[in-house]
Amino acid sequence: MKEEIKKYILDQAIVKHVCPQGAEGISKSRSIDDLLEMYVKDIDYCLSNDFPSNMDLLKIGGERLSTYGILIDDSSKKQNSKFTVLLGHCNVSLAYDGYTASTLFVKNKSEADIEVNGHAFVVIDCFDECIVRLHVGVKAKVLLNIYGKTTVHTTGPGIIKTVNKHQNTY
Fold it and tell me: Which helix (H) or strand (E) segment is 8 a member of?
């Protein structure tokens, strides 16, 4: 990894008041993969602080983002993804079935059509002005955490526990 990338991200982290452990992790990172692993590990902080920005994530991660489940301005279909983050203006269809346990984050102005079937369990955190259309089958379960001005449409006989957080982020 180029030193100027690491320095740039560290400078951005300082502006966003990252904790000392986070700054140390960035300064010790040796590769883009190290930085992306930190993003996934510290997803709550990153989403709450829009850090790094979507543009910076694209510059840094490029094609590697999808390996980590991070999609920006994407339009695709995913099946049984364990960890997914939708950023920017995604328009994605996601399907979960079997005994899958997954975590999904939908942010910015993304739209997600989500089918949860079988014995699948999915935790979904929605932020900003995203749109989520959710169908949950008979034995499936979903925990839906709503932040910001998210629009949610739910159908199906499965268990959907909806928690409106009444705030914009964590």
Answer: helix 3-15
